[in-house]
Amino acid sequence: MDTRRNFIKKSAIIGAALCFPVALTRECLATYPVLKTGEPKKVLILWYSQTGHTRRYARLIRCILKEKNLTVDEREFQEADKKILPDYDFIIIGTPVFYYDTPSNVSDWLETIPSIKGIAVASFVSFGGPEGNQHNASCHILKLLAKKGGVPVGRDAFRNIPTYPTPRWDSDNQISGQHLPNAATFDQVRRFTNDTLERISRGETISISYEIEMREILRALPLVWMNKKAINKHTVDATKCIRCGTCVRKCPTKAINPFQQVVDRNKCLACFGCLNNCPAGAVVMEYSGERLYGFFEYLKRNNITIMEPEEFKTCS
Ligand SMILES: Cc1cc2nc3c(=O)[nH]c(=O)nc-3n(C[C@H](O)[C@H](O)[C@H](O)COP(=O)(O)O)c2cc1C
Ligand code: SF4
Ligand code: SF4
Fold first, then answer.
1. What is the model's pLDDT at position 176?
2. 313 in a structural domain
């Protein structure tokens, strides 16, 4: 039985293009407003995270900044009131890469934030790659922030175990990425945070340059739609459901109703947040006839514990 990734690859007419990753860069929005301050005091970190990786990096960044005596607010982006954004000196946005791109619920949210003219902005993504288009996904966030007057000062991408369910969790990425994040990943987060702060103090910006690769053509495919077609079952097993409401909280589009065992397939973004986080294995998803199981079950079955950074021992 094909894995989902194979399905995508095979169904892409331009699949051959994947063999020739010609990389070019395209720059946009190279001039920005003047920075509000070279000495940020108030920082806002907003993240979107379905399975905890992006949240872990956001939390580490908060710990590092708090050590430097900055005032830091850190929260899930859906819980933030957009009106508070202009109150900060520095805004950092973190998201996973989903389907070679920024998750659409995050981009839609950023499209409607108020003006943040002159505020330093940085973005980071967590990804399961290596081929996952992480550079462009983080640039896309910066571009949306710059459209609102934000001044780009940093971007980065941190790799970890992918959370994308396949029937046996046996894609090459899942196997090769199983020890990430590690100490080097956390060092990269520390470097990103420190370098970005230094750049602000020097009044420097970064340009938003997209990498144009043949692989980029994949983004033009309706990947979410294609996956939803391959997911032939998506419902809730009432006999297993403990009515905890986790899937409802995790669903970005309110597509799942576990109490009536229904999923609105039109609203669903195929993000797997419900499947990955259900503590009772009650979310039923079948991919081309094969039952999927979630990320935390995958960790349990393979005895994988995700490493936490040192800072978490002392930073509340
Ligand atoms: C629906 C879905 C799509 C994904 N698509 C990609 C992708 O295109 N490229 C990639 O590198 N990783 C991809 N991943 C892996 C995630 O980006 C990665 O595991 C991320 O760190 C998850 O972050 P979180 O734990 O904060 O939710 C995908 C994961 C899911 C669940
Ligand atoms: S119902 Fe769809 S959109 Fe909602 S969490 Fe599940 S997979 Fe994601
Ligand atoms: S997360 Fe699982 S157990 Fe909890 S309400 Fe949803 S389906 Fe039921």
1. 73
2. no
